[in-house]
Every structure is written in C-alpha cells, then in structure tokens.
Write a structure and sequence with these properties.
413 residues; mainly alpha
Length: 413
C-alpha cells in the first residue's frame, strides 16, 4: 500500500544519504539522480493517494517534487563538471607522457584498497567511478522535465506566482540545455516530446489558475505538438497528445460548472468544446492503435473506452448536452467493446493490472447499459477490493453519471 511504499522509499533515501556522508568525494554516490528519482516516485505515489481519497490530510507532494528538482540540479552540476574534466583529459594526458600508466594504476589501486580495508567495522563501502557522458546528462535533464510536468499536475499549485516561477525555471535552466544536448546525443524526438508534455501541463496549470483563456490553451496544445509531422506518425506522440486533449476537457468541465451557475447559456458552448476535444483524443488513440509499432495496446483500448464514457458524461447533469444524451446507448456499447478488447489483449500480454481494470470497467458498463449485475459479482470474486477502487476512480475521472453511481451502489447493496 501507499504507506509501505513510502517507508521503503524513505529507507532507500536514508541509505543513500549515509553513503554521501561517508564518501562525499565519490561521484558515484554523489550521483543525486537516484535520490531525485526516489523523491519523484514518492511524490507521484502520494499524489495518487491524495487524489484517490480527496483527503487533505494526506501530505502535499509538492515539497517532495521540489526537493527532487534540487537533487537533479546538483546532479546536473556535478555531471557538467565531470564532462568538462573529461574534455580536458586528452590535453592533460599528452603533457604527462613520461609517466608510467601501469605504476599509476597500481598506486591508485593500492590506495583505494587501503582506504576500504580501514573503513568502519560496521559497514564496508566500495566506490565505482564511471565516466559521465552526454547521454547521462540528457537523462538528468529529462528527469527534471518529468518532475516539473508532475508538479504542474498538482491541484495544490494554483498560485500564479508559483506557476510563473516554474515557467522561469524551465526557460532559464532546462529548455535550452535540453535542446542543446539533443544535438549532441541525437535524442531530438525524445526531447521534443518531453517539452511538449511539459508545455501542455504548464498550460493546464495556468488555465486552472485563471491565467489563461480557452483559445490560448487550445493553441498551446496545438503548438506544443505542431513539430511532430503527420507524415511520420508516432504512437507515443499520438497517445500523449490524446492525454493532453482529455486533460483540457476535464479542466474545462471544472471551470464550466462555475460558469454555468451564473450564465447557463455558456454551458452549452463549453459542452461543444469538450465534446470536440474528447473526440479528437479518441481519434488519435484509434489511429495510434492501428500503427505496427504501437506499444501497450491494452492501455490504448482502455483509454478509448474512457473517451466514450467521457463523451457520454456530457449528456448528464449539469451539462445535459443533447448530442451526448441522444448517443448515450451507442457510446456505452462502444465503451463495452473497447474494454472487452483491452482485457483480451492484456490477458495475452500477461498485463495483469490492465486486464483487471478493463474487465471491471466492462462489467460496470454492462451493469449500466443492460442491468446485468452478475458480471460485477463475478469480477468481485476475481479481483476482490480492486472492483470498488476502479469504480471510485471512474467516478472521480468523470466517466459516470451520478445516476450510474447510485444504481451500482443500490444494486450492490
């Protein structure tokens, strides 16, 4: 569970910091990337737990993400120093041609063995010196970008000053370096995708902080992914852009509920915009699933099913979008087909988590559309408490009407 995972991560962090204190000069131990990754993973874990239970008592993961950024920055500084030293090493080697490399190696080996043999009786440490490469630097930069993207997704980041600070951090310390090392490593596509995801996450953060209007947000998504050519489609790019469209629609619905309270006529226009973007996401997922190099097909089909339920959701209160309401039965049937297909593919690929999620969602749709609740009972025998967890997530993600949730609960009782 979340608490056990948190304790594991913290123990790993304690061990790592103990190593840093014992051998502060060792670049291997000072490679703060490991610590940054631990903090990022822990932050994501707490964020998921906080969102799932909507419990303000659960710790805010923002501090963990911010600390992770600090570790990644220190790691990057060390790596840049190492690269500069490596670049100057050939010149130094040509100057010291009269030294015997074998004698030097023996001396270094003896000194290293001597230092280890006289270490504390409690622990014995060994250091492994590995050369720093441009690829390692790129890994750290991408980890920073991923952490910033995660921060943007936190509901606690609502202050426009915090958002501006993140944007400044990215533009001054990260974006230029990412683009620079893309040329040195040849990882242009990976860098472009990381920047696109961050830009969309930042736009969503600004929108939720009421610092961005709808047309500008729409333009930002289109511009972020505008450099990926349609002539050479990439399934990962298509899936990531689909996720950005879905996040946009979800944020628009949250804002729209407040708008509808004062100006109901604007609600209809917002419903149309939401429908359009969810449909775009569905089209991209469908296209991605047909590509021969597509990965994780079960997850793609799961997202297709989610999109159909998201479109159907617009037909319920408070949106009451006419097209969605009239298409509700068709959308349910489509979702059922996608979930069933995802479950079958997941079984073939031995993807247990995806198989359980897809199978449970299929049973939920069957219960709603046909009143057949035996399927849910069967899933509870197979997956036990996971069933309730999936239903809660479906409700939180806006996949169900309020009447759906009540009906499932009443029939379950």
């Amino acid at each position: 569970d979340a608490q056990k995972s948190a304790r594991f991560f913290l123990r790993a962090l304690d061990d790592y910091e103990a190593g840093l204190r014992r051998f502060p000069a060792s670049f291997d131990l000072a490679y703060n990337s490991n610590t940054g990754q631990v903090l990022t993973s822990l932050g994501e874990l707490i964020s998921e737990e906080r969102n799932r239970h909507r419990d303000a008592a659960v710790a805010d993961p923002l501090e963990l993400f911010q600390e992770a950024l600090g570790f990644f920055q220190r790691c990057l500084t060390l790596q840049e120093t190492q690269v500069l030293q490596s670049d100057s090493a050939p010149q130094q080697k040509s100057i010291e041609t009269d030294r015997n490399p074998i004698d030097d190696a023996r001396k270094d080996s003896f000194e290293h063995f001597h230092s280890v043999s006289h270490a504390s009786n409690e622990d014995t440490w060994a250091t492994i010196m590995e050369p720093t490469t441009d690829q390692a630097l790129m890994d750290t930069l991408l980890a920073q970008a991923e952490t910033l993207t995660s921060i943007c997704g936190l509901s606690s980041v609502q202050d426009i000053n915090d958002v501006d600070a993140m944007d400044q951090y990215n533009s001054m310390n990260l974006c230029d370096k990412l683009l620079g090392f893309a040329s040195r490593t040849g990882r242009h596509h990976e860098v472009a995708l990381a920047i696109a995801k961050y830009r969309c996450a930042l736009a969503d953060c600004r929108f939720n902080a009421t610092a961005l209007d709808i047309p500008t947000y729409e333009h930002e998504i289109a511009d972020a992914y505008g450099n990926f050519p349609d002539s050479d489609p990439d399934p990962q790019v298509m899936c990531d852009r689909a996720d950005a469209e879905i996040v946009f629609a979800a944020s628009l619905q949250r804002i729209g509920i407040r708008v509808m309270e004062s100006t109901p006529e604007n609600g209809a226009r917002l419903s149309i915009v939401c429908w359009k973007h969810i449909t775009k996401a569905l089209d991209r997922l469908t296209a991605a699933g047909k590509l021969p190099n597509a990965k994780n097909l079960p997850r793609i089909h799961l997202r297709r099913g989610d999109c159909e339920l998201l479109r159907r959701r617009l037909g319920g209160a408070p949106w009451n979008y006419d097209l969605a309401f009239k298409s509700a039965s068709t959308l349910l049937k489509n979702a059922e087909i996608y979930y069933r297909g995802a479950a079958r593919l997941a079984k073939v690929e031995a993807a247990a988590d995806e198989e359980a999620e897809a199978s449970i969602k299929e049973a939920v749709v069957l219960a709603i559309s046909t009143g057949y609740h035996n399927a849910l009972g069967e899933r509870k025998c197979l997956y036990q408490s996971a069933v309730q967890g999936v239903i809660e997530e479906m409700n939180e993600e806006g996949l169900l009407w309020e009447e759906d949730t009540k009906r499932i609960k009443s029939d379950d009782a």
